[in-house]
Amino acid sequence: MNSTENMDSFEGTWGSPEPGEPHLQFAADGTVVGSDGCNRLMRKWTLEDGVIYFHQMVSTMMYCEGMDTWLQAAASARRQGETLQVFDRAGVQIGVLPRSA
């Protein structure tokens, strides 16, 4: 990422907002909402040196058999072109979300 990247470049939807699909929708006010494909997710986010950090996560706690709810473990993310690489607290990449059209 370049040093001119700002919060505006992350605003919008990443992933598929279709039912059962993981996605995140970033707003300029520092909030992000979405779904892991099963549960609704609500968080705060900040941008520091090109890395998004997630804070104050709130989630529904439904059980969805056979669903991979990897997005609940998101601690940070980094933009790579038109994809968003998502990382857990240990810095391990846990998934990728494409920018939605």
Automatic annotation (TrEMBL):
<feature type="region of interest" description="Disordered">
    <location>
        <begin position="1"/>
        <end position="24"/>
    </location>
</feature>
<dbReference type="InterPro" id="IPR038670">
    <property type="entry name" value="HslJ-like_sf"/>
</dbReference>
<feature type="domain" description="DUF306">
    <location>
        <begin position="17"/>
        <end position="91"/>
    </location>
</feature>
<protein>
    <recommendedName>
        <fullName>DUF306 domain-containing protein</fullName>
    </recommendedName>
</protein>
<dbReference type="Pfam" id="PF03724">
    <property type="entry name" value="META"/>
</dbReference>
<dbReference type="InterPro" id="IPR005184">
    <property type="entry name" value="DUF306_Meta_HslJ"/>
</dbReference>
